[in-house]
Amino acid sequence: MAAIPVPVARHRQHISTLSDAELVPLAKQGDEPAIRAIVQRHNQRLFRTARAVIRNDGEAEDVVQAAYVKAFTNLATFRGEAELSTWLTRITLNEALGRVRRQKKNTTTLEEIDMQTTSPGGEVLQFPSSLSATDPETELSRSQARQLLEHAVDELPDEFRAIFVLRDVEGMSTEEAASYLRIRPETAKTRLHRARKMMRQSIEKRLSGAFQALFPFDGARCASMADRVIAALRQPS
Asked: Cα(87)–Cα(190) distance, rounded to whole angstroms?
């Protein structure tokens, strides 16, 4: 696979305001600012897509990088018949699934992946937040909540995790997500329903143990209370 020539970057403040349709012709010419703009614009979706299949941050990043290289190397074949985001997402999915197949040393498709797969994965899946942290305590709470969700997502079987991430995390329509995964919309709806149910069960299970730790009243506080009670009982009535 031959690499495309990338000229020295030029200062172009307006590049980020261009649409994908406007950036593609520039990228086909090896325009570095245009390529950078495309990458930055689609990084989050492609990472989430790869992460939904791979369940490992480092490997997901490798998949996204490989997908970008493949896309930009073959950009001349992109005719604009579909959105650039659709084309990039499909390449990323194929790259991620190909890696899974190679790891399993077979040609299992996403449709056929074992629903009971429980192989361990990575720990982080980036969820967006429109709110900025106002203090370290707030940021810690968000981090803990995000980790709870990330672990619950990681525990989903492969085919359920993929539809959940594309539909509920990326906000795709059911039809769009089904098209990416090459399954029927009815199948996508069924999987999404089961994925949401499994997410609720996983979160409830994790939280149930945490409830016992709420409002701890032990140690010195417990001893102090006992002292106060004894002291009160010794008081003359």
From this structure: 25
Query: If you ran DSSP here, which 8-state letter would residue 144 be given?
Result: H
With CA atoms as reference, report the closest residue to 195 among 231, 226, 224, 158: 158
Two structure tokens written together for 131: 């709110």
Q: pLDDT tens, 143-182?
A: 777 778 888 888 899 889 999 988 988 888 999 989 888 8
Tokens 């969820």 — which residue? Answer: 127
CB contact set of 101 (below 8 Å; sequence gap of 6+): 107, 108
CB contact set of 80 (below 8 Å; sequence gap of 6+): 21, 24
pLDDT digits (tens, 9 = 90+) for 24-60: 999 999 889 999 999 999 998 899 888 888 888 889 8
Q: How far apart are CA 59 and CA 216, in angstroms?
A: 41
Tokens read off for 219: 């140690």
For the entire predicted model, the pTM comes to 0.59
